[in-house]
# Entry
Amino acid sequence: MSKETIVRRLRPSLSHRFQCLHQPTQFAHSFSLGPMLCAQGAPRDVTHDYEKRITQLDSSIPRLEWYPRLPAVAKISQIQKNSLEKRYESLQPDETNEEQEIAAIGRITSIRTAGSKLVFLDIETSGSVQAVVQLSHLVKSDPDLDVPRFKSFAKLARVGDVYMVRGHAHRTARGELSVLASHLPKLLAPSLHQVPAVLEDASTRAAQPHVDMLVNPVAVQTLRVRHHVERTLTDFLDDRGFTKVTTPILCASAGGAVARPFETVATELAHETLQLRIAPELWLKRLIIGGFKRVYELGPAFRNEGVDATHNPEFQICEFYQAYATLGDLMTMTEELLRGMDAAIKKACSSEKLSAIPACKVDLTSPKFKRVEFLPALAEKIGHSLPDLDSSTATSDIVALFENNSLPIPASPTLPRLLDALAGHYLEPASNESPLFIIHHPACMSPLAKHFICETTGQTVSARAELFVQGREFANMYEEENSPFVQEEKFAQQRALRGESAGVAGGDLEAMTGDEGYVRALEWGLPPTGGWGCGVERLVMLFAGRDRIADVLPFGHLRNVVALGTADRLVGKNTKEEVCG
# Structure
């Protein structure tokens, strides 16, 4: 590639940044001018406290020194709460370990003064570490330190600032392990705003999630629960011989689920519309065809649908595929996974002191979750068997059932949607009492699953199961359709549901479009395979005790994320609808 090509492809914005990097004095001059405008010319939400803080810092420290590089001090060990307690547990009250200098580095969460020459700081270092800053001890290493300079530090430091405190491990007379400062604490990053003691307003919490995390422990602890959920998932699969893979997010046609995709255009393929994946399923099954026996992926998926308490257009999904696994195998693995995850989260909450996380209200210790068959259970609820779902009148027959039972008819009332609504009304509520597998859905509801004739009802059903807990779907699993001929026919049926084959307006736009490339791949032989998928956020909601998906996402749902990048959100003008939508 020629030098001219490289220069031509450099984005203008990036080129501008490279130019700026060669002008450090210009940066320094701009910084010294004080607060200007936010991005895109939006005025900063300047408060009186903010202006006072700027003035206070300016009078004490040159502005270019507010954000120094972390000092590289030889032979100093950065200490955290756990390591401090383990390493120096033998220290007695009023005893100091002078052998090893240590440093507590983190954000101040509390400041207490005892006269004019003694300050106690609580530093957040994966747990709160107390720093004792005593003038009489500091002058031993810095004889030039005087009272005015010490008082200036005590007046300047405040909750929210990031400081480094160098010193030695010390146990106070009251028995608390601390860091006894041997040098005046060094400011690493000031907080220019007063950290509130309480933050409860939903609008403000959504507008400033970083502040919410500083004030409300549950916000950070929920994300730690998410970490343990994802780690338990990957450990569970790794221990069983699965290979973690990454599959494309951008593709020509998004398949693998019944959902409406996002569309975009790439500069390299300007004349083609691309879609963001709605599920990694078809890619993962190609890998099984290619010779893998067990694969999984944990990554993002995108569905162009609404935002509510349990749905967000962008979410994390975990899917795994195992050759020669049956539906029974998949349900057993699901039970084992949730039991193990429950134990892992309880252990983490105890060892990490996640006090803001409530105990899981669902009993997941049962070795076998309750199972109900879709059609027999539905027939029992409505008092009679369902009509032949393979007949040409099946849709109108089910609509009549809705009318006779005074049930609201869903939008785009295709047969799969009608049956799904019946399950939501009659079957899923049983999961409020205990985890519930709904199995053997009608074949029309599962175009990627193998099907068979139900011995009880004589209906065509799929080798599929869904796990519901407290009325919410948590996992979907089935034996994969591996016949290219049957799969092609099922894709054709899905296109008919969309109204594409006949050009009908108002079809179900969330029905699958089909993937001819995947059908061609099936011609090479997909072994009998079991597939499983779940939304990670649902699991986090369950184990963190949160009712809204926005509460388990670091920056909330899509409306919040978009609003965070707008001028209105910067000045706090978001509406309740944007926050709670």
In short: The two ends are 49 Å apart (CA to CA). The first strand starts at residue 77 and ends at 78.
